[in-house]
Amino acid sequence: xxxNSKTGIPLSAKIEITExxxxxxxxxxxxxxxxxxxxCLPPQKTYSFHVEKEGFMIFSESFxxxxxxxxxxxxxxxxxxxxTAVLKNIFFEYDSYELKKNRFLNLKY
Length: 109
Hints:
Layout: E1 2-4, E2 14-19, E3 24-29, E4 45-52, E5 59-65, E6 74-76
Parallel strand pairs: 1-6
Antiparallel strand pairs: 2-3, 2-4, 4-5
């Protein structure tokens, strides 16, 4: 479920799900009334969720799915002057300051 982190109101948002090895899982959108979305993904893998909506900070986080039925809550923070943003899922080459070439998902936006 995607929702406004300040008000708790459900949101419609674009969702990109990627298996952590870089293979694209799927693109979907959350429902504008309930904020819910449905995705069928193989269990026993870790996926990166990249969620965006105009006027809100980008949400990007990894989830490891061990079970077949998972309910994920995705809070989107409204963009405001002076807020701090934390970028997750930024990966570097081993023992280097170079970014991994296949892990630019958070930086392309």
